[in-house]
Sequence to fold (892 residues):
Amino acid sequence: MGLHLDFPTDPYVVLAPDIRWYPGDDLLGQMGYAMLLPPLVHRVRQGVKAWRDSGYAGACETTRSLLMHWFHAEHLLPHSDRTVRPFQWYFAQQEAVESAIWLYEIERARDPYALMKFDSSGLVSKGMFFEDWTRYVLKLATGAGKTKVMSLLMAWCYFHKLYEPGSDLSANFLLIAPNIIVLDRLRVDFDGGRIFHEDPVLPANGHDDHDWQDDFQLTIHIQDEIGHVAERGNLFLTNIHRVYDGGSDPTFADDDTTAYFLGKRPTGKTTDSTVDLGMIVREVPDLVVLNDEAHHLHDPQSAWFKAIEDIALRLRQKGAQLSAQFDLTATPKDRNGSIFVQTVSDYPLVEAIRQGVVKTPVLPDAASRGRLTEHKSAKFTEQYRDYLHLGYLEWKKVYEELLPTGKKSVLFVMTDDTRNCDEVAEYLRSRYPELGGENGVLVIHTKNNGEISEASSGKSKEELDKLRKASREIDDPSSPYKAIVSVMVLREGWDVQNVVSLVGLRPYTSKARILPEQTLGRGLRRMFRGEPVQEKVSVIGTDAFMDFVESIKVEGVELEYQPMGERTGPKSPIVVEVDQGSQNKDIDRLDIELPQLAPRIQREYKNLNELNVAALPHKRLAVKQFSEAEQRQIIFLDLDTGAQSHVTEMDAEFTPNYQNVIGYFTRAVMRDLRLVGGGDVLFGKLKEFVENGLFEHTVDLNDLNILRNPSEIEATRTLLEKIKAGVNALTVEDSGTTEVRGTIKLSKTRPYLVKDQAFVVPKKSIFTKVVGDSGFELEMAAFLDGCPDIISFVKNSQSTGFRVEYQNAEGGIANYYPDFIVKRTEAEIWIVETKGREDLDDPLKWERLKLWCYDATAHDETKRRFHALFVRQEDWEAQKLMNFGQLVTACG
Fold:
């Protein structure tokens, strides 16, 4: 069954439980509940949604402060290109964090019996839980950002322990990786506390009366690098072998070095320990355990599980405790394919693909697949030469398309044994010049369980260290490798983002105990995170391999099928760049330079104190009377339709107060108006408005009946709209003057990505392609390219840097990006806006654009003239125009 028709493509929007992926009753009956759905998740989602909608009712002050800061405040972060951009956590990450916190703090579901009440299948029993301590499994698709979830959970536990008297949580953490590759990745994020400071994890000092950043003192201990171990504030980052009592990592000096490269699966104790990390973590007074790539924890007899069990036992023996265990993985499934019963949050791959959090897998269509022949030959590369060539072609097209962005695309080939692995590598080097030489193809031998094997390579320790480094850094443009050939698939943690073509030449069987998502996972991570484009990975392989990949469709994953081969386009976003390599364009002559004017429309925050809420024009509302039960409800209504969406019943132990209600509206106004300060002043103004101005008479905000009234649709709309209008009227000003702060030279625009769509290849533009948001814009681009009376034109975008601020219909400040810039002569520049259906903001944008052109002309030292032109689609379609002058006459 596919996704719900209303399932959003934006990964940041809140997902309602009733639109999440569901396999359908037929498939559920055929496959079994345990194989497809985590049985606890649906009811947990419902409970968490109601709790979130209530403003986190019942949470302690620390928890609520953190959740509101993380997920309900705007975060603007500086970037390396000196711009400031908004930052948000994906909703999947938010939901995972909220689910763990809600279960632990609000529901106090900290043991199997407490968790079983959330079972939707009717099949869960106590015997399915192996642990007797608090354990939550958080399922997030590959590439959905498990590390960020771990950082938020750590911060919550830390501050809860620090600020909440009697907290059962801990400010000591053991973060366990299954192997060295995962450990290296985690080291990058956590060493020096990097992730806590690069992401807005820690609120500013003074937020809700705490000095969060000063109080967050976390010592990071990585493997043998153990510093002073205090009673509180330790993060032990290690792989599982160090946690065994007396255990250590495999070393090159071991008699059997096959586990040296990545670390073997935990099967028992090892020796040669220099630091007994297992004893150290057992000596702290309390502890939270986090497991990354935790799908190995399905076996209660495994050394991994036994190690954590032993930690919990030793803590109890000295009157301490293992506060909680958080396991994160994309595939929490046991050897039989059943999902871990402890799974409390789920962001499946089908949803991650739809929302563009990961790449979309693309398979050859029937015609393309029909051209692939498995040739009869004893030579492996001759047998599969069609598959290798198609994989190479798909890689090369994307490699060439994306090269201007500075990203290097990677080809990944999986074989069945080390001999064929070496043969394929040599075949690629000898046949394809781009992959020639010793450094074109990286060969990694792996064993049957996916771990890297050194025994097959016969390499020295120094060579193996270089191989490990090369496999970790292949995404780096400075890395010479463009292709990887590996036996089987690399194990979890190999988080390369640039794989665009994946070729599988293995006879996959169910005995392999590898899941399709783990196989696809090697190519699913995005290259361009944060860019609003769809990325794809071409998946090619033998019939057995393709059948194996397609088996993931039972989990709802939508695979695309497209033509592949010589005369097909790249499966990638489109790159638009300055056409510096063209022999037919004089870029200097076609280039357009614009003045960068200081904003005229600005917000003066100092005026917020002057807001006179008593003077806001509005109809005063009658106070409605509600029953005691209704007073403990929060009603959520659609502001556009007035329809009731749902009702939240507040916990009997929680008594709402006016701070909760006024605080909610304060945050809503600040978010909508993008205010970065003055929250305390605004809170006071809103309180005054509700007390003295919103209703027909003065009200007492300590009265529960009064607190229920603002959630009524008319009161909510009046409160938000009038306060925002008042704030905008008071704080948004036209300074009346501007100045030139610099210039925007359009030829300096860096290559940028757009979604795969129709485009025009222009002769009179500095760019290689012109894309449009509509057919009308493409028609205009083609018209301008053929105009004999202009020198050049550009389709404007956010990437060029040319924007004009204006005051929108709501009175706030917004940015406006005009559609086209036309250089008619060296002294005459036109800014052209095309418009189909108009909205309330369009007249305001038009007036502001004319004012911008007036200011630009007045301040231009070279005496250039700037003009604005508004082209309505109906006017355009009514004319048969031959040149730009006629367009000006018809629409000017």
